[in-house]
Design brief:
Structural class: alpha/beta
Radius of gyration: 16 Å
Number of domains: 1
Number of strands: 8
Distance between the termini: 9 Å
CATH class: Alpha Beta
Strand order of the largest sheet: 1-2-3-4-5-6-7-8
Number of helices: 8
Strand content: 15-25%
CATH architecture: Alpha-Beta Barrel
Helix content: 25-40%
Order of helices and strands: EHEHEHEHEEHEHEHH
Largest sheet: 8 strands, parallel, barrel
Amino acid sequence: MVEVSTSILNVKKGEESATFFELEAAKTDYFHIDVMDGKFVEKDTYQKMFEYASYIRRISNLPLDVHLMVEDIDKAIEDFLAVEPNIITFHLEACKDREDVMKKIQYIKDNHCKVGIAIKPNTKIEEIYEFLPYIHLCLVMTVEPGKGGQTFLSEMVKKVEDLKKYLEENNLETDIEVDGGINLKTAPIVKNAGANILVAGTAILMANKFENIISELKNG
């Protein structure tokens, strides 16, 4: 069975408390925090996501899955460590070089947090291979990051398959998380390809009963 990380990006203003409690009762495994700076991606959700994450931390013990879509990764790591996340994932494309990537990995680990690296659709999966022994999670974006409700890019399935194969061949236990356009139709495709954590926002938040959709995403 896979795990579900619910993106809270489009939770309606004024309905935060009820929505977060309902998601927890519906057995989401993580709250997915989409942190955007308006530079690395068009949208700016930085302050809103910090407020939401801080609020969740006060009312829930569920793990926070923080996805940084930002240029200044170091500052964002520093800011979001304050909400005691379970994992912080940053983008490979926002790093200067290999040394920079390794420094960020180590800093997150030194602060007792798991670490993930995300890659955009245009980034080759092979670029992440050398970092896999040092990280807990690889996030494969199946849409261009920065916008909710986009259509799933089916050509990304091969990336997930290649990553899964590489992990198995090298005896690595890195989680494969997939984010973008995940719904009841696309979930089985990425699960079969090897993903074990699914990020879904629109599909869950638009559903009549969170419990039903989360259960179907996990087991379907």
